[in-house]
Each structure stands twice: as C-alpha cells, then as structure tokens.
Design goal:
The structure is a homodimer of 407-residue chains. With 407 residues, the first copy, chain A, is an alpha/beta fold. Chain A contains 13 helices and 18 strands. Chains A, B: Keywords: Amino-acid biosynthesis, ATP-binding, Kinase, Lysine biosynthesis, Nucleotide-binding, Transferase.
Amino acid sequence: MARIVMKFGGTSVADIDRIKSVAQRVKAELDDGNEVAVVVSAMAGVTNQLIDYTRSAARLYDLREYDAIVSSGENVTAGLLAVVLQDLGVSARSWQGWQIPIRTDASHGSARIEAIETTEMSRRLSSGEVAVVAGFQGIEPERQRITTLGRGGSDTSAVALAAALGADRCDIYTDVDGVYTSDPRIVKGARKLNRITYEEMLEMASLGAKVLQTRSVEMAMKHGVRLQVRSSFENLPGTLVVDEEEIVEQAVVSGVTYSRDEAKITLRSVPDRPGIAAGIFGPLAEAAINVDMIVQNISSKEKTTDLTFTVGRAEVERALAVLEKHAESIGYEELASEHNVVKVSVIGVGMRSHAGVAQTMFGALAEKGINIEVITTSEIKVSVLIAEEYLELALRSLHSAYGLDKV
Amino acid sequence: MARIVMKFGGTSVADIDRIKSVAQRVKAELDDGNEVAVVVSAMAGVTNQLIDYTRSAARLYDLREYDAIVSSGENVTAGLLAVVLQDLGVSARSWQGWQIPIRTDASHGSARIEAIETTEMSRRLSSGEVAVVAGFQGIEPERQRITTLGRGGSDTSAVALAAALGADRCDIYTDVDGVYTSDPRIVKGARKLNRITYEEMLEMASLGAKVLQTRSVEMAMKHGVRLQVRSSFENLPGTLVVDEEEIVEQAVVSGVTYSRDEAKITLRSVPDRPGIAAGIFGPLAEAAINVDMIVQNISSKEKTTDLTFTVGRAEVERALAVLEKHAESIGYEELASEHNVVKVSVIGVGMRSHAGVAQTMFGALAEKGINIEVITTSEIKVSVLIAEEYLELALRSLHSAYGLDKV
C-alpha cells in the first residue's frame, strides 16, 4: 500500500468523457490498495477564457479579483471528478483551496504555498476516501482572499500536497508519456527516459520542455517528493524524477533540448570601464526584462568592449527602448538585435565527473558547419546560441554525438 | 443617503459590455451618496452549462458536489464586476458566500439562509466601498461545504442581504421594467404598476409571472424589505413591492395573470365515502406530485362523486400512472386527463373589502362564451381553469372588466 498524489492537467480533463477516463485511472490505483489524492486543473480552455474576460473587463485589474475569477475553473473540475468517482462506487469528495486550507502568501496571481493543513484529509484518505483537490489555488490567511499560484500552478499544488501528505509518489499525468532525450518531433531517435534527476529536470523545464512547471520540480527536490511524468491517455510507465543516488547507470548527457524563445542583442564599442555592466543590466532589470546568456568580448576598437546578451523574443522591443533611453550613460556606438536565433543545450548530471562534454558539442556542431554565437555553461549544462535554421540539424547531430539514439 | 442592495440577473450580466453597463448603474447610485451592495447571478447560460456537465457526469449525483460546481458561475461575475467598478475609480471587492459568510442549512441544492454576518461588510459599505456579492450561494457551517439556494436563488440572496444589512431598498434589476397589470404581449392595454403589495406579488410569482422568486418575496414580506423591480436596460422607475399600508389608492384588482403549465385530471364515479380524498392525494404526494386546484362534485351516478384536480403538465403521465396503480383501492370508474387548459387569475388585496369581484369575472367570461371548468378562490385571488384557446380573449376581457386598461 502506498499513498499517491495524482495530478491531471487541462487536456486530461477537457470534457466529461476524459474526466471519466481519469476516474478509471484513479479507481485502478485505489483497487491496487493505495490511498489516493487527485489534483486537477481547469478543463482545457477554461482558464484562458476567464483570463480573457478579466482582461476585457479592465486594462489594469486587481489581482485579488483576478484570482477569485480564474480559480473557479478548477472548482468545477474537482466537483465533476468527485461526482464521476462516486458514480463508480468510489468514496470521494472535492476540496477547494480554502476548504483544506492551502495557505499561501498574499502575492496574488503568483502566490507561494506556505502550509497545507492535512489532518482531516489524511484521516479521510486512510478511510479509503479519495480527495479531489482543485489545483492552482490557495487562500491568503490574513484577509481570507483566494490566491492562485501562477500558470502551471497545479503541478506545484500536487507536489506541495504530496510533501504535506507524506505521499510515496506524485504522478503528473499529461499529454506526453514521459521525458524524452530530445524532442521526438525533430529527433527520430529520441528515447523516453525511465529516470531523470531533479537537477536535469529543472534545466529541461527552464529551457522550455513544458512537461513540468519549474517551481514544482524545485519543490519536489527540496522535499524529496518522487515525481513521475506519465501519459493520461495510455497506461504506460512514465519518467521518474528522482535523486541522483537513485540512478544507477548515469549517462553523461541525459538530453538535448532547445528554446526558440530567444533573441540576441549586441552593444558594440562600449567604453570598457568598471560599472558598465551595471549601467546596462540595471535599467533592464528595473523594466522587469529577463536577461539570459551574457558574453563580453574585447572590441576591435581600443579600450572598448562588445557586449551580447539574450532576452525572450517578446521583450526585444522593450529592451531596445530601455537601452536607447540610456544610450548616453552607457555610451555604446552601435545597438543591434537579431531574432532568428535558438538556444540548444545538452544536459546531464554526469558532466560533473566527465571531462570533454563541451568539447564533444563544439566538435559535433563544427563538423556540420554550424556557427556558435554565444556559449554559456553551468555545472550540468552547456548551452549555445545558433542560427535558427540549423536547429533540427544541431539537435540530431548532438543526439547522435552523445550516443542517445534508440538502438 | 440610503443603503441599497442592487441585484442583477443572468441576462443583465450576460457579457462584459453588459457588466460594464451594470457598473455604471452601481456608480450612479454611489454618486448619489448611497451605500451599495450588489448581488449578481452567473452570466446567462453558465449555470445551465454547469448543470449539464454535472448531469452528464452521473445520472445520480451528490448534491454537495453539484453545489460546489454550479456556484462557480456567480464567483466569476462577482469578480468581473468588482474589476470593472475599480476601473471606474470605485472602491469595490467581491465576496463569495463563504467569505461573508452567508450561513445556510445543509439542504444542498435548495438550502435556506439562516444568518448573514455583516459586521465587516457594513464597515466597508460605510467607508464607501461597494460589496459585490456572488448570489445563489452560501456555506453550511458544520462541514464548511458550499450550498446553493435553488433556481432563482440570487433574488433570495439579495433580499436576505438587504434584511441583514438593514438596507433601505432592494432593487431587483431584470429584463422587464416592472410588474404589469397583465402580460403586455397579450393585453395591449396592460400598464406597469407603480406599487404592488407583497401578498399580490406572491400570488403573481407563484402563478408564473417569473419576475421574482416566490421565496424572495416571502422573505421580503417577513423582514419588511422594500423591493423594487426595475429594468437593467433602461433607467426608468420600476414597481415597488411594499406593505399594504403604503398603497394609498388600492385598486380592487391589481392584475390579471395566467399559467399555461396546467393539466386537468378527472376521476369519475368514485365511491362517495370518508377517506376517499386521502386515498387519492396521499399516493400523489408520496410521488412528489404537486396538486393545485381541486373540485369535487356529485356524480350523475348515485352514491358516487366526480373528482377533478390540476397538476403541472410535465407531471400528468406520472400522476396517471400513480392513479392507475391505486385503481382498485380508489375504485373510480373512469380516469381522464386534459392538457389544453390554462389557469387565469385576478389578484388584488382590495378584494378583501369589496364584494362582487368573482361575479364580475364570471360575468365577463360568460359574456364571451368562455366556459369555466374549475374555480378556486383565496382571500386575494380568484382563479378559473378554462380551455387554452380562450386564453388571450379571457385576459383582455377581464383586464377591461376590472378597469385596468391604459387610459
């Protein structure tokens, strides 16, 4: 017997038929003798509809009201799943965030979970009742207003609930059947990973593999929650996200991933004096523009430097406007931007103990004549920025170079 | 300065543009120096959609889950109206039933309000903040589950809130601009009433004039809440529902109304012995079939009686089945039913002090050759059952006979 938290996203509960399939999956776990709490998202499309309503109600809106509005979608799914489970003869009840309660801070729109009261729920789970929990929401205790956890917050709800309930596993059911070594739509040889470490999953999530919300992985790592990414539609084992120690034969590189949401900005011939980086990135940070990769080179012109960095594509225009506004204080000679770039990364905790991983990457790309524009590295990741037209070729070459192809 | 509760139904908040119009109406009351609480329904169609979901989830469903599901529509409207009001520079916040709280009994699906905690809301109203309250819902205190008040329950929410807040007026905004002496689609001369008594309104509501929920009128009468029925779409005075004493020149008859939802069942030659009525209406009551008008006549056959009564059209088949099942114990000779009948009623508290009201009715109908099948009377109402084909003629004749036509 185990205690399990199951989480189903919007496409998995998109209509009544799918909710009925979900109920069957829940019942199967229960019939295996497990205690089950289920976390559900809103039916696909509902949250976007509610956000659209709010945006057309007012250009600037109170985030407390936004939270009260958008949290309603999850309440509907939770009630419906409880009804379907009862119809299958399963004892079940729905829980809204304030009923549990899931206490959060007061950062409406992107609140952080602070505590979950589980005494009553735990008692009911032990008696065989299924808890159906509305994801994505909580309550801010001081004023008793509803909060939401930000997009993808139901993953975080599930992991936090698993931690609070001392669950043996937290299964995230989604429309993919696990985490792959690369994007299977591009790399034919991509394989599903049976296991992946929290650190690797974190890098993948932050690089745009939209399987899990970054924050939920951080939380799972912190609390040692065993996560599993599984398919809602097929009954297959998925990918377990676990501690490094649980992975016996660790590959050097676990995956090759990419992000198209990149744009490159270059400032040429910036005076090379102390404080110049602060003069550039300070105003960008104030404008809430996220800067990712940064490289600084000696410029062709004496006593000046060239500075290149990347931002999200949607933020290029705003970033350029900020830099133009501060042109005098920064003192660059030329400001250039480029959209047609992508970031390709190889990820693996095995890198820590293996030399030459970056070298393999550079060699494989060079062999195909792919020019590297920017390089950044971390302990378990090497990322390069390349021209977008080479994306597919780069992914396939790297996937082979690290021996990840299906045998 | 007055304290006002305004209630807007589903068609009044059907989309964002209409919610914006509602906000303007609210702001106008505020600008006049009033304190304002607003009760809103779900956007038109939303509650039906949620009920459909629940019904397709399971044939029999837990009413606690039904309540958790269907109450979400009102939460969305309340949040959206608060957002729009804030955008107009009005201080506002939304309240869900459990946040106030509106305490109800545990009769899920048709709960009754027991108490409303208004200390905090009252303080905020005094400070100029508008309270936007999700109608139709409450919380059952023992288990902290959400309850709903039954169809049209937002009217009841509004009246109960007005009573609890000691409001000077409760304005029900709807898609008609008031209560009419008769159906203006049938009777050209129908006039809007400036005032009507609670008792008359109750009779009208229970007779199918779907302007106000019966229960909300009862509650307004009990707590002396001054109700006003007004148009959401035009800025015109509506109809005030008040105590009899507030009406200076009371007409004998205030309105002529009708109900098409009638069917007649006749049992012929039933043995005329004590207990026979119980033998007929007992089984019908057990089957939860509502019986309305009842008449008993001496039959042509000796020592037997003919018994006629009306039920809702949707319940005729069930009622006949029940009566056939009990045919032996009742002992009737013939069982007949008729669908093409309507109930026409004249209503007025003035009847109490005026003789001849029923006589005028019978005379007017006789003059047009309209046969009366069944008659029932109460202190302030005379109802007759007639063939449906005469409905329009009967309404117009009675409207004239009582001098109600527009001058």
